Amino acid sequence: MLRNFACLILVSTFCACNNGSSSDKPATDSVEKNDAVMLTEEQKAEGWKLLFDGKTTNGWHKYGGGPTGSAWKVADGMLYLDTSVKENWQIKDGGDIVTDDEYDNFHLKLEWKIAKDGNSGVIFYIHEDSAKYTWAWETGPEMQVLDNEGHPDAKIEKHRAGDLYDLISCSKETVRPAGEWNQVEVIADNGRLDFFLNNENVVSTTMWDDNWRKMIAGSKFADMPDFGTFKKGRIGLQDHGNMVWFKNVMIKKL
Questions:
Q1: For residue 138, which phi and psi values (nearest 5 degrees)?
Q2: What is the rounded distance in angstroms from the CA atom of residue 74 to the CA atom of residue 54?
Q3: CA 33 to CA 194: how far, in whole Å?
Q4: How confident is the model at residue 132 (pLDDT cuts 50, 70, 90)?
Q5: What is the mean pLDDT of residues 165-170?
Q6: Which of 130, 158, 198, 223 has a C-alpha 20 to 30 A away from that of 33?
Q7: Structural domain boundaries of the chain?
Q8: Strands 78-81 vs 244-253: parallel, antiparallel or unpaired
Q9: pTM here?
Q10: Phi and psi angles of residue 123, each rounded to the nearest 5 degrees, phi first
Q11: Over 90: is that where the pLDDT of 16 sits?
Q12: Phi and psi (nearest 5°) for 23?
């Protein structure tokens, strides 16, 4: 009888220890496992190049110069913004980051996900002259990255996820909820601009013509004379003070 009782105590203790260790596991909401970042042979043959190798921030720097800040981190094939320490409306040692190279005609692909109530953006044709332009978005158009369900910008026309920010609204809503991955394509080819969000063409327009200039004149960029005029520039990822993740970032010159 005593022997059976002792065995019962041992089994109960073992189970209790196991349950405790399970509940003490660290949260993994901020990052998740992802397959290795690599191009297929077909993609290489088509001219695709990785803009993010899945392991480092090589090929990127902070807008205005200098290495990417420590708040931009890499884990499990993802590039993400760690928002642990705020600094004004952005993140301490974060800031917008841009590609080392410039692009004119290009096809960009990437995936993003945004935290609940989050805001960010993918900016292109950035003319990097921080002495003249404090922010990357003073020169380059932006594809909006947003939690449409939670962020107040979603109530503003042309400020929703997938929009050509403050210029053109998506033709249809295809964005996924906060915390889920969205597939993006930006194609800029001799003035023709197309946005794809989750395999749907949501924006189509022509840059640099009279209609383009008219749109800018009626937008928040009206007092920025150089906005949207550059035909070659860097690609940027925005620090808007919210946690955001990017992966599978690649580009093909057209």
A1: -75, -15
A2: 7
A3: 31
A4: very high
A5: 98
A6: 198
A7: 37-253
A8: antiparallel
A9: 0.86
A10: -110, 145
A11: no
A12: -75, -20
* Residues comprising the chain, all counted: 254
Q: What is the residue whose two structure tokens read 């906060």?
A: 178
Closest CA to 158 of 200, 221, 249, 97: 221
Q: Dump the DSSP string for 128-180.
A: --TTT-SSGGGTS-EEEEE-TTT-GGGGSTT-STTSBTTTB--SS--PPPTTS
Q: Of 236, 254, 164, 160, nearest to 203 (Cα)?
A: 164
C-beta of residue 108 within 8 angstroms of C-beta of residue 234: no
For the segment(s) 37-253, the CATH number from 2.60.40.10, 2.70.98.10, 1.10.260.40, 2.60.120.560 is 2.60.120.560
**Spatial distance between the Cα atoms of 250 and 81, rounded to a whole number of angstroms:** 19
Looking at residue 247, its amino acid is K
Which residues make beta-bridge pairs with 203?
195
How many Cα neighbours within 13 Å face the side chain of 12? Answer: 6
Chain-centroid distance of CA 167 in Å reads 19
Q: For 87-120, how does the pLDDT look when each residue is reduced to its tens digit (9 = 90+)? A: 999 999 999 999 999 999 999 999 999 999 999 9
Spatial CB neighbours of 180, under 8 Å, sequence gap ≥ 6: 113
DSSP conformation class of 32: -
C-alpha of 189 from chain center: 22
| CA 202 – CA 170 distance, rounded (Å) | 5
Residue 213 has pLDDT above 80, yes or no: yes
CA separation for the pair 112, 73 (Å, rounded)? 15
Q: How far is CA 229 from CA 99, 108, 186, in A?
A: 19, 19, 17
